[in-house]
Amino acid sequence: MSNYYVVNNPDGGWDVKTEGAERSSGCFDTQAEAEMEAKRLAGNSGGGEVRIQGLDGQFRDSDTVPPAVDPFPPQDKKF
């Protein structure tokens, strides 16, 4: 199980990074493309969390990717 982060690249675009890694797993033009790739990578590694950073540098969302189990399932049903 691995955790992935979608972070703003200062040179433009969005990076997907594995927790603890210095280099990114990939750079994408849009945040949506980076999020899809992060979720694909997390699913292939046995599940995990994907945390998504906003333009302000704050993490705006977090998704649990199966087969990982969310220890605190959300009360909202947006997904």
TrEMBL record:
Which InterPro entries does the protein's record reference?
DUF2188
Stretches with biased composition (Pro residues): 68-79
Q: Where is this region: Disordered?
A: 58-79
Pfam families given for it?
DUF2188
Under which name does UniProt file this protein?
DUF2188 domain-containing protein
This protein's species is Candidatus Collierbacteria bacterium GW2011_GWC2_45_15
